[in-house]
Amino acid sequence: MTITAALVLFAVTWFMVFFCVLPMRFKSQAQAGDVEPGTPRSAPAEAMIKPKAKLTTVISLVVFAVLYLLITSGRWGIYDLDVFGLWANRY
Q: For the chain, which residues make up each domain, given as ranges?
């Protein structure tokens, strides 16, 4: 796996995990009872982006390590994603 491929894999993994972590411990302004004028009631009362980014990084490193080991070991590759058998005759 090239460095560029590893960076792309990590970035995609990080953002996928980040979008899963974002709703955790979410409390809207309506739930907090303090709605700021000019904002929707569903806006977050406190975003807590830094702790969520740190948690995302830790989880992403673990997921990336597993994916990296699977890909570099040769046990799993792009041809394993060929569900319909379209690539079988090409290579």
A: 3-81
Query: What tokens does 34 get?
Result: 């303090």
Residue 5's nearest CA partner among 58, 71, 57, 55 is: 71
Threshold 0.85, pTM exceeds:
no
For residue 2, CA distances in Å to 5, 60, 62 come to 5, 19, 19
Spatial CB neighbours of 35, under 8 Å, sequence gap ≥ 6 = 29, 41
pLDDT per residue as tens, the chain (91 positions):
899 999 999 999 999 999 999 999 888 888 888 888 998 988 888 888 999 999 999 999 999 999 999 889 887 777 777 777 776 666 5
